[in-house]
Amino acid sequence: MPIRSILFFASILFGLYLYISVLNPGDLQFQIYPGVNLRASLALLMLLAFLAGGLIVAFTDALRDLKRTLELKGFKRRQKALWEYLEDAEEERSKGDLVAAEEELKRAIKLLPGKPLLYLKLAEVYRAQGKLEEALRAVRAARTKGILLQGLFAEARILLDMGRKEEGERVLIELLKVHPQNAQALRTLRDLKMKEGSWGEALEFHERLLKSSPESDGELLVALRYERAKTLGESDGKEALKELKRLSKAHPLFVPARVLWGDVLLERGRTKAALEVFRKAFRDTKNPVFLQRMEDLYLREGNPRGAVHMYLEVLSDSPDDPIVRLLYARLCLRLGMPEETLSRLSEGEHQLSRFPLFFHLKARAHMEREEWQQAVEALQKAMALEGREPAITYRCEACGHLEPEWVDRCPSCLKWGTFNASLSSWGPP
Ligand SMILES: [Zn+2]
User: How many Å lie between the centroid of ligand 1 and the Cα of residue 384?
Assistant: First the structure.
């Protein structure tokens, strides 16, 4: 209390004292013990009563302050110890000593058993050690003590680790009820559905994820729509065709959708429409898979002339495309036209003579014509190039994986629409 206010109260008290003592000049007499008397003026008694009251108030205040200070000290001490345990646990964990980290966390919990975060951390350490039952118990303790979202997610992850897929999924759905935009939960559920091939559900979760975090993978959206259309194609061809058309319009360079669009049309007997789809798709993407599809289709329909025309048309558009030239030369061989094979090959010799396939085709054409000497020479050249299998190979543009046939999804890097035929995969560059 500042000196000024003390002086102010003291002077008021003193004034009051003077005033009362002037009005009541006589003394009062008390008996405080049989035979013991005390005399005092009324003003003095009043003053003493005031002072006693003030002292009592000041004393209880001081006591309360002392108690609070002591409590705070204890809390700070425990808090400090807690941080130390946590830091130690973190350090042990980063060193890979999970058992020591577990011990530190257990000590921290003993100190402050009400902190849900500690149980969550303990659950992580258990999970890293593969003690999944213990991890589950710890994470459920964290949940009952108040960590809801993180707790639910951690519980789901542990359940999934344990192979309890349905329970894990249920927990994630429960999480989404509380927080519908939770990206972790949406992503986990999407990946689960992708793994089990439930593409429709995977797509739904992915669309929800894109709404909440637009930075996530938009390419995957196209792939998932494609996969759903593929599943749809097995039951509802009409609906699948509609979706594939939309998908191809929106993403003309996504090859799988355009291949499937043509394939579904073929399955439904719409050969002409399928050819048209493949033709346009080749024009847009230059992916030889469409040429191969058209070639197969023409031959299956008993129309080899159609196939020849198709190649000649493409060759007149892009005469320098070595892949088209090789495919056409191979077709001519299939159709028993070795002369055409040889003449097309020799036209492209300057480009193609680096590739073993070129010599393999040449050798086979010479064999058809029973020109054994030239056939042997061509085979020798093919071998000199350390020829691999003269088959046409498709290469994943993302990871370099090779497949003998075009595939929609890379079995190695799991990406969609990355396969293209490349000459470099047909022999040494
Ligand atoms: Zn790949």
Answer: 30
Ligand 1 centre from 171 Cα, in Å?
33
- pTM, two decimals, is 0.72
Ligand 1 midpoint to CA 422 (Å)? 14
d(CA 276, ligand 1 centre) in Å = 29
Q: How far is the CA of 256 from the centre of ligand 1 (A)?
A: 14
pLDDT for the residue numbered 427: 46
Which of 262, 269, 281, 260 is closest to 199 using CA atoms? 260
Q: Give residue 405 CA to ligand 1 midpoint distance, Å.
A: 14
pLDDT tens per residue, range 127-181: 999 999 999 999 998 888 887 888 899 999 999 999 999 999 999 999 999 999 8
Residue 314 CA to ligand 1 center (angstroms) comes to 28
Q: How far apart are CA 342 and CA 329, in angstroms?
A: 8
**Looking at residue 388, what is its pLDDT?**
56
What is the distance in A from the centroid of ligand 1 to the CA of 112? 51
84-93, 207-216, 341-350, range with the lowest pLDDT: 207-216
pLDDT of residue 360: 85
> Of 184, 238, 243, 254, whose CA–CA distance to 213 is shortest?
184
Q: Between 423 and 372, where is the model more confident?
A: 372
Distance in Å, CA 157 to ligand 1 centroid: 28
- The Å distance, Cα 408 to ligand 1 centre, comes to 10
Question: In the structure encoding, which two tokens stand for residue 100, read together?
Answer: 């020591």
Burial of 35: CB neighbours in 10 Å, binned 0-12, 13-18, 19+ = exposed
Residue 251 CA to ligand 1 center (angstroms) comes to 20
CA 412–ligand 1 middle distance (angstroms):
5
**pLDDT, the chain, mean:** 88
| Half-sphere exposure in the Cβ direction for 84 (13 Å, CA) | 8
